[in-house]
Amino acid sequence: MPAGELPSVPSVLTRRQILQTAQSIAAAQEPDGALPWFPGGHTDPWDHIESAMALTVAGLRDEAVAAYTWSARTQRPDGSWPRQFRAGAIEDPATDVNFCAYLATGVWHYLAVTGDTAFAADLWPVVAAAIDLVVASQGEHGEIYWLRDGDKLLPEALVTGSASMYHSIGAALALARRLGDPRPEWETARDRLGTALRDHPGVFTRKDRYSMDWYYPVLGGALRGRAGYDRIAERWDTFVVGNIGIRCVSDRPWVTGAETCELVLSLDALGDRDRALGLLASIQHLRESDGSYWTGLVYADGKRWPVERTTWTGAAVILAADALSRASAGNGIFRDLAADAVPGRAVPVRVTG
User: What domain of life does the native source organism fall in (predicted)?
Assistant: First the structure.
């Protein structure tokens, strides 16, 4: 990718800094393509995809392909993945259904950025099997249950995971249309899930201490426009801490980079650019000299916590910078897959090739 296409955000991040952050993610990649949280750490299928998306934006295409190939290779016959690996071995065999859904977002994003329809087609059976598993995990009110342990599905739905799955099913539908393999049953499942998120909050287990439950319905596209603005306004003062980022948990004195960047993406999706820019700038105190990012900061005593620099935090920074700079052809991956964008309307992310 030519340097001019790399994201940059004036007075916040240069193209060179974005590339350096991507290189810090690539440096953690294992020989089999897995992208762990940090060198020697564990890999989960969701954050692995987030990191692959950042590599794609930065033009590290071989590394991104290796990551997606790892996902294809490690998928189980039922369309699922174990929720945790370490050094190539399964560390937790249970299935987080949202983790399985996120591959669709990653593959749609890769196609948008690169125009590589052939690679997307190669991965389509993997995506389709994963989304079939997700849809099969839907409850009677439209919610999607989040945990499978073997053949047992735990009847509990979470706002954050369901909102993320709403987005991922939208990405899968966009892929289905692009590849000529329509899936109307997914469309129905997504509509039901969106209705549950908007109108039936009681079907979800409350986790409102966590900032993700606050902004994820906006990030995932289930809430936009006035409803999205109202949701963000409702708890802004609870989670946003001055000019240092947002809390992960409402009653704990720490801010985290990834959650702050996801709020940046949510605000960008609402057209609230000024506050989005301010938040992206606010977490640059987490940046290290090699381009990596600390996960968070305990602002009560100025200490890093957790004491780790996570690949997915750096990835969230890159995706937020891309959205604000409109640099890659996939910059609208979170902005454009909204409730009214899929299906049957304009293709939500521009695809070339």
Answer: Bacteria
Strands of 152-157's sheet, edge to edge?
95-96, 145-149, 152-157
What pairs with residue 210 in β-bridges? 249
- In this structure, the dihedral spanned by the alpha carbons of residues 200, 203, 207 and 213, taken in order and rounded to 10 degrees, is -40
Coil/strand/helix, residue 235: helix
Give, in degrees to the nearest 5, the angle at Cα 326 between 113 and 348: 60
> 193 with 138: CB under 8 angstroms?
yes
Q: Please state the length of the chain.
A: 353
CA distance 6 to 59: 8
Sign of the torsion angle spanned by Cα atoms 204, 210, 212, 218: positive
Calculate the dihedral angle through the C-alpha atoms of 110, 115, 119, 120, rounding to the nearest 10 degrees: 60
Concatenating the DSSP letter of every residue in 299-331 gives TTTTEESSS-B-HHHHHHHHHHHHHHHT-STTT
| Whole-number Å distance between alpha carbons of 79 and 65 | 20
| pLDDT 10s digits, 142-185 | 999 999 998 899 999 999 999 999 999 999 999 999 999 999 99
Contact status, residue 308 vs residue 37, Cβ threshold 8 Å = yes
**Rounded to 5 degrees, what angle do the CA atoms 221, 223, 224 make?**
85
Residues 188, 142 contacting (CB under 8 angstroms): no
Closest to 221 (Cα-Cα) out of 265, 261, 256: 265
What average pLDDT does range 7-20 have in this prediction? 98
36 touches 28 (CB < 8 A): yes
Q: Coil, helix or strand for 142? A: coil
* Burial of 113 from C-beta contacts in 10 A (0-12 / 13-18 / 19+): buried
C-alpha 109/C-alpha 331 separation (Å) is: 9
